[in-house]
């Protein structure tokens, strides 16, 4: 069984319904995982997606914030969700394919602007979310699983446009990178994108604040695809669709793709 999977922080699925439909039409991934849907599940515009063949969906949502959804051409069953750090946010949903592979779609808190939990509650929530993620993976080692999503951390020096300039900027601070690394290690997760693209600058997010994001190219790789070691060797063809960031009224994230032969 071969399938292509994509992950994309859509920054409002209702506002960008047409962009999702365009991606599904032009790129035809078998599975699309969306974050920051900003919609209750019952108001996600599924009709257009279903008409394109994506007749299966599992999702968790809330009005105006957060929200995660998995759209699929392939049959999937709802494999539950976890409220890491007990924030009451719709930040995780899991789906299981017929071949037994479980897909986890995660949206890690952004963490605000100040990288100090004593001054910024949101930063503390982000660290707590990652700590609980780590503890869950330690308690129950995932198998035959894929984890994707906007993890809101660019862990490597070549995942950001300027490593030294961003060391005190939320998403690339050493404490965040360490917390993410601990969660990754606890689950034995393999960074599929960097397995396939082992070196070189690579970004999936460019700020709306940049008047010319493309030429400035001050990006960060915040969106990730991981897999457990028992299936990681089955992955290939990873790519970031940078051009999508330039579509009309875009998300500030670009989709990340990988293919699995399972």
Protein architecture, described:
It is a single chain. The protein is α+β, with helices and mostly antiparallel strands and 262 residues long. The chain has a single domain, classed as Deoxyribonuclease I, Chain A. The protein is 24% helix and 26% strand. The chain has a six-stranded mixed sheet. The mean pLDDT is 98.
Helix-strand topology string: EHEHEEEEEHEHEHEHEEHEE
| Helix coverage percent | 10-25%
Describe the biggest sheet?
Answer: 6 strands, mixed
Low-confidence region ranges: none
Ends: how far apart?
Answer: 5 Å
Instruction: Trace the largest sheet across and list its strands.
Output: 3-4-2-1-14-13
Assign the CATH superfamily. Answer: Endonuclease/exonuclease/phosphatase
Total of DSSP H or I helical runs spanning 4+ residues: 7
Question: What's the CATH C level?
Answer: Alpha Beta
Q: Please state the CA-atom Rg, rounded to the nearest Å.
A: 17 Å
Shape: globular
| CATH architecture name | 4-Layer Sandwich
Mean pLDDT: 98
Number of domains: 1
Tell me the strand percentage band: 25-35%
Number of strands: 14
Class computed from helices, strands and strand pairing? alpha+beta
CATH topology: Deoxyribonuclease I, Chain A
Oligomer: single chain
Offer a concise description of the structure.
By secondary structure, the chain is α+β, with helices and mostly antiparallel strands. The protein has one domain (2-261): Endonuclease/exonuclease/phosphatase (Deoxyribonuclease I, Chain A, 4-Layer Sandwich). It is 24% helix and 26% strand.
């Amino acid at each position: 069984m071969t399938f292509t999977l994509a992950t994309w922080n859509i920054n409002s699925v209702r506002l960008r319904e047409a962009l999702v439909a365009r991606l599904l039409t032009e790129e035809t991934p078998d599975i699309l995982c969306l974050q920051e849907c900003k919609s209750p599940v019952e108001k996600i515009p599924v009709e257009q997606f279903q008409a394109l063949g994506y007749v299966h969906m599992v999702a968790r949502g809330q009005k105006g914030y957060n929200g995660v959804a998995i759209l699929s051409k392939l049959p999937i069953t709802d494999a539950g969700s976890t409220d890491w750090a007990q924030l009451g946010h719709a930040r995780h949903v899991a789906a299981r394919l017929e071949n037994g592979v479980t897909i986890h779609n995660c949206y890690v808190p952004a963490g605000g602007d100040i990288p100090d939990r004593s001054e910024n509650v949101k930063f503390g929530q982000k660290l707590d979310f990652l700590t609980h993620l780590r503890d869950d993976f330690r308690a129950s080692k995932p198998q035959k699983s894929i984890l994707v999503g906007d993890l809101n951390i660019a862990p490597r020096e070549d995942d950001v446009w300027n490593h030294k300039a961003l060391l005190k900027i939320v998403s690339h601070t050493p404490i965040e990178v360490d917390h993410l690394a601990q969660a990754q290690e606890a689950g034995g997760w393999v960074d599929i994108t960097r397995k396939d693209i082992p070196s070189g600058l690579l970004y999936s997010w460019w700020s709306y604040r940049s008047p010319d994001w493309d030429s400035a190219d001050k990006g960060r790789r915040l969106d990730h695809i991981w897999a457990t070691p028992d299936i990681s060797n089955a992955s290939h063809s990873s790519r970031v669709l940078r051009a999508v960031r330039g579509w009309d009224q875009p998300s500030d994230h670009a989709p990340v793709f990988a293919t699995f032969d399972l």
